[in-house]
Amino acid sequence: MKQAETIDEVILLLDQIIEKSKIDQSNLGLFAILYREVTVRVKEGILAGSFQNGERMEKLDVIFANRYLKAYYQYQAKEKPSECWAFAFEQAEKFWPIVLQHLLLGINAHINLDLGIASAEVSTVEDIEDLKHDFDHINFILSDLVGGVEKCLIKIWPTLTWILKFTGKVDNFFIDFSMETARNGAWKFANEFVAVPENEREACTKLRDQRITEVARLVSNPGYFVSAIFKFIRLFERGTVAQKIIDMQIMEEKNMECVVA
Q1: In sequence order, which residues have a C-beta less than 8 Å from that of residue 65 and are 6 or more positions away?
Q2: In angstroms, rounded to a whole number, what is the distance separating the alpha carbons of residues 174 and 150?
């Protein structure tokens, strides 16, 4: 099971996942691109002194990333990852989820489950409050990137402008719901989890995993009206999965500025 020891190794492993996803025509590469950009920005932030404790932040980033990497490689090996990651990975094999849903399913599992656990692992009950500033900064980076993706996916969704105009930006509900709720819920969970005795953490993790999987089901099936809109968008998404991955890579390289075809 591949695991990273440094942020640079995290980026390298994410690059491998992205390239494999292109070859396999797998939607798993979509979240990996977004997460790679988050990791790069965290690395840059550490070097620039944007975090209160750079050493702790690198440790947190690696522990955090390794939870995603472990789940990914377990799924590839046909082993059983956490329930919320298994659900996200299974949706990646289906036709109907749109790009935004794939991203939100990954964010849901990684922020709502993994970030709270990773935060607790680099903290104690006495000092976890010291992490709050850096915890919020990671979430700010992710929220900023998701907002950039929304603005840039016109190339993949040629019907998106029309949809946003006539639905009052339905997709904003999912971004706002995912980011704000995930951030607050993950911090609350981190504070609870850090106080859980070691012999009870597995049961606590399992219970949290089940709850987060229910959130994933909502993202996957948001009700008749929104689901119908998303299916309409999906029918007009351009290109192969590999091309969508390449388009998102271009967005990353252009710092999420829209690329004109």
Answers
A1: 4, 10, 13, 14, 35, 39
A2: 11
CA angle 217, 219, 225 (to 5 degrees): 105
Q: Which two tokens stand for residue 69?
A: 């990497």
Which residues lie closer than 8 Å to 145 by C-beta, 6 or more apart?
Answer: 34, 37, 38, 41, 256
Measured CA to CA, the distance from residue 79 to residue 74 in angstroms comes to 5
Helices (H) and strands (E) in the chain, counts: 12, 0
pLDDT in tens, the chain (261 residues): 789 999 999 999 999 999 999 999 999 999 999 999 999 999 999 999 999 999 999 999 999 999 999 999 999 999 999 999 999 999 999 999 988 889 889 999 999 999 999 999 999 999 999 999 999 998 888 877 776 666 656 665 666 666 666 666 555 555 555 567 778 889 999 999 999 999 999 999 999 999 999 999 988 988 787 778 778 778 877 788 898 888 888 776 665 444 333
pTM of the model: 0.87
- Residue 250: in which H helix or E strand, if any? helix 241-253
Tokens representing 228? Answer: 């119908």
Task: Enter the tokens of residue 211.
Answer: 């709850």
Q: What is the DSSP string of 128-161?
A: GGGGHHHHHHHHHHHHHHHHHHHHHTTTT-TTHH
- What is the rounded CA–CA span in Å between residue 44 and residue 56? 15
